[in-house]
Automatic annotation (TrEMBL):
Family stated for the protein in its record: Belongs to the bacterial ribosomal protein bL25 family. CTC subfamily.
Name of the protein in question: Large ribosomal subunit protein bL25
Assembly information from the UniProt record: Part of the 50S ribosomal subunit; part of the 5S rRNA/L5/L18/L25 subcomplex. Contacts the 5S rRNA. Binds to the 5S rRNA independently of L5 and L18.
Source taxon at top rank: Bacteria
Classification lineage: Bacteria, Pseudomonadati, Bacteroidota, Flavobacteriia, Flavobacteriales
GO aspect biological process, one term: translation
Organism name: Flavobacterium supellecticarium
Length: 203
């Protein structure tokens, strides 16, 4: 999985006044969990643009100005309900020998036979929960729809899993090809035409 670097400074004071002052200065108060003890630090709000405002998922390298470095993932984020301004972020420290669970996006590949025949592809799961060692976390889970006919569904059991596990029931539908309204209408009209008596034919 791709990683981005967040540079920050460790906080000595974690009270409300210090937190408010940090936000007023354009900084985001953060906490890193998963180590021997939580690490409190501030980082510039603009540093999170590539981490938060994207459909992609990344691991994070937290670099503090005191020389400490941590590998982590974003665990939780709090935003202002009106302005969407980032108020607080929690990170969780990664350890090379410990598996981690996180959600990664689904990437659709291939051209569905059902879609080419007039069907509509519906993506039921935009993200899937995976569990793996940090080094094996995928950027995305690939879903090949090539063999999907009209009315077919693609289940999680059909997805490739290389060095990671999908934490979903076997009957979880990732995507499916539905009959479009136009195709359904055409089929109904064809059925009616087939049942109607031929023109000029006596009953």
């Amino acid at each position: 999985m791709k990683s981005i670097t967040i540079k920050g400074s460790e906080r000595e004071s974690v009270g409300k006044s210090a937190t408010k002052a940090a936000r007023n200065a354009g900084m985001v108060p953060c906490v890193l969990y998963g180590g021997e003890q939580p690490v409190h630090f501030n980082a510039e709000e603009k540093a999170f643009k590539s981490l938060v405002y994207t459909p992609n998922v990344h691991t994070v390298v937290v670099e503090l100005d005191n020389g400490k470095t941590f590998n982590a993932i974003l665990q939780d984020i709090q935003v202002h309900p009106v302005s969407d301004k980032i108020l607080h972020i929690d990170f969780y420290q990664l350890h090379a020998d410990r598996e981690i669970t996180m959600e990664v996006p689904v990437k659709i590949v291939g051209n569905s036979k059902g879609v080419m025949a007039g069907g509509v592809l519906r993506l039921n799961q935009r993200k899937l929960k995976v569990r793996a060692l940090p080094a094996n976390l995928p950027d995305f889970v690939e879903a090949d729809i090539t063999d999907l006919e009209m009315g077919n569904k693609l289940y999680v059991t059909k997805l490739p899993t290389n060095n990671f596990r999908l934490l979903h029931p076997d009957n979880t539908v990732v995507c499916q090809v539905r009959i479009s309204r136009a195709a359904m209408k055409a089929a109904q009209e064809a059925a009616k035409a087939a049942k109607a008596p031929a023109k000029g034919k006596k009953k």
